[in-house]
């Protein structure tokens, strides 16, 4: 469920960004300022930060990707006022893209070949006082 939610949400991001830019370029939002895009990227940064909290219970690879993407959104928000922040967001975005390719391939490879061929560093649930694994009912 998490994967479908995340992919759909990022699809919504790209669709809304394209619509926002298209409407701006077409004159519908002629009064758009840097503040508009700053708030837009901040909202996405907050949402991805919430996703990052969820990924902390999946794997280190998932967590690293979502934390990186959240930082990219915050840097893009700052980047509306600073060229250096926008450039840094671009470079970190490329790193996140490579990590996303690795994560996607590793998840598929490990699932199809029924093994752990590429490491994801999955979350290890702490053992409770009763000795039971607290992650027993958590599906990854």
Concise summary:
By secondary structure, the chain is mainly alpha-helical. It has helices at residues 2-25, 34-55, 60-79, 83-112.
Structural account:
The protein is mainly alpha-helical and 140 residues long. Helices cover 69% and strands 0% of the residues. It is built from four helices and no strands. The chain is elongated, with a radius of gyration of 18 Å.
Fraction of helical residues = 55-70%
> Total number of β-strand segments?
0
Could you list the spans in which at least 5 consecutive residues all have pLDDT below 50?
A: none
Largest sheet: none
Oligomer: single chain
Quickly list its features.
single chain; 0% strand; mainly alpha; elongated; 140 residues
Task: Show the helix and strand layout.
Blueprint: H1 2-25, H2 34-55, H3 60-79, H4 83-112
